[in-house]
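Input record (one chain):
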Amino acid sequence: MTQPLNMPLGEPLAGDDRYEDARGIAGVPDGFSRFWTPYRMAYIRGEAKPTDSSADECPFCRAPQRSDEEGLIVYRGAQCFVVMNLFPYNSGHMLVCPYRHVSDYTELNEDERVELGELTAQAMRVTRAIAAPHGFNLGMNQGDVAGAGIAAHLHQHIVPRWAGDANFLPIIAQTKAIPELLEDARRRLAQAWTLTGDE
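The corresponding structure, as predicted from the sequence alone:
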């Protein structure tokens, strides 16, 4: 989507059926346009989320078995790989995962810990080169209670941030507007990774 979200109220994008002019909604108009993102319901409902913690059900174990395009893999290292987050907090949201199905940071061996850190740094360099973010959120959630969506397989988040990238949508609509398709973001990041080289 190229149109900014701060467009005048009640003026949906021409030809974009994700927007609905509030003046045509039954009842008393409230002056707000609606930005329809039904594809987000899969995330909200937890569809396709593993029902158990086995490696057979784990999306982070299955992704490396697919092609880079199908698995949304940006880069494959010796111990860890970089993959696009299927439900990103922001454009360019990547995850660094060990190939081994381990849940806790303390379970990583030394080689895995080193490569996880190196790939995190390279992901930041590549993102800076192609998207010029103003900052990053980095982190990992250990366990369900800490907010880990897939608690059984450790993963490090790399979330690019820009000034003004947060708005009301996540707060009142549980929706995040992502202007780039995951496939396109993966392709750009993977190409840039090759161009910048492994540092």
